[in-house]
Amino acid sequence: MCARQLQMYGGSWTEKKLQILSKYLEAYTKALKNQPFELIYIDAFAGTGYRELPTAGPDDEGTLFAELVEPDPQQFLDGSARMALGISPPFHRYMFIEKSGTRLSELKKLRDSSDLCDRIELKLGDCNDELLDICMNWDWRGQRAVLFLDPFGMQVDWSTIEAVARTRAIDMWILFPISAVNRLLTQSGNIPTKWADRLTNLFGTPTWQEEFYQNAPDGLFGSTGVSRKACDWMDIAGLWNERLRSVFADVADNPRMLHNSTGAPLFLFCFAAANPKGAPIAKRIAGHILEHME
């Protein structure tokens, strides 16, 4: 074990996320099985099972995601990679990206034991670098893909989201770290520069400051010029979906809020479609699954 203490996270919200994704992948491959496209599944955080939750200083992700740690032991869960390989009919290709060499070794075991091993490609690297390469250098005219972005925190850059949208060929499911965002939005509006930069990189614009803060009134003399937080969970979710809608052909209007066992919001599970022709159908299917999945 490394120098920092590690805890494991997971729970019913993880199962719910995978159930929603599984339902969509099943519908996707069935709907397109007779279309002249190569169908690809891309998982940019493909390490299986639980993630490791670092616990260290006040600025790192262990503190921002403390509520991910469940109070009771959790059953080990297979990750999205194994789930995707069980979809029928299968995808023509699978691209699993993982930054951790240890977890990539586990994915190699999964690949080598799968009947679909010749369809599976593994990439060791940062999700942003690998996805930019995929989006910019693959020929998307004869390909369609579903991308699953399941970051621990704020690792996905807005420039990566834009590149995905520009392919006009990828349906994207992404876990938006709404809990961490809310934590960074201090009540006083006094946000450290490091945190503000992370929020700007996540949303792709500094306008989140105008959306989430307002000047406090000064009674008889109007505004004091002092900012105060003026947003709730739905305001944060609304801005994120609006940002997705600014670059994708269409976006599901009903993203699913995922909570831990104590009811604390953790992530917003969102869907966006890049292909203008297929987006209306994709949105309808995704929206139905999001609405009706228990």
Give structural notes.
By secondary structure, this protein is α/β, with parallel strands linked by helices. The chain has one domain: Rossmann fold (3-Layer(aba) Sandwich), CATH 3.40.50.150. It contains 11 helices and 12 strands. The protein has helices at residues 12-32, 61-64, 80-85, 101-112, 127-137, 158-166, 178-184, 193-203, 208-212, 233-245, 279-292, and strands spanning 5-9, 38-43, 51-55, 93-98, 120-124, 143-149, 170-176, 213-217, 223-229, 250-251, 256-259, 265-273. The strands form 3 sheets. Strands 2, 4, 5, 6, 7, 10, 11 and 12 form an 8-stranded mixed β-sheet that branches. It is globular. 34% of the residues are buried. Mean pLDDT is 85; it is low at 1-10, 49-59 and 67-77.
Short description:
The protein has 294 residues and is α/β, with parallel strands linked by helices.
Which structural traits does this protein have?
Rossmann fold; 12 strands; 38% helix; eight-stranded mixed sheet; globular; 294 residues; single chain; 11 helices; alpha/beta
Record the SSE blueprint.
Elements: E1 5-9, H1 12-32, E2 38-43, E3 51-55, H2 61-64, H3 80-85, E4 93-98, H4 101-112, E5 120-124, H5 127-137, E6 143-149, H6 158-166, E7 170-176, H7 178-184, H8 193-203, H9 208-212, E8 213-217, E9 223-229, H10 233-245, E10 250-251, E11 256-259, E12 265-273, H11 279-292
Parallel strand pairs: 2-4, 2-6, 4-5, 6-7
Antiparallel strand pairs: 1-3, 7-12, 8-9, 10-12, 11-12
Helix pairs in contact: 1-11, 5-6
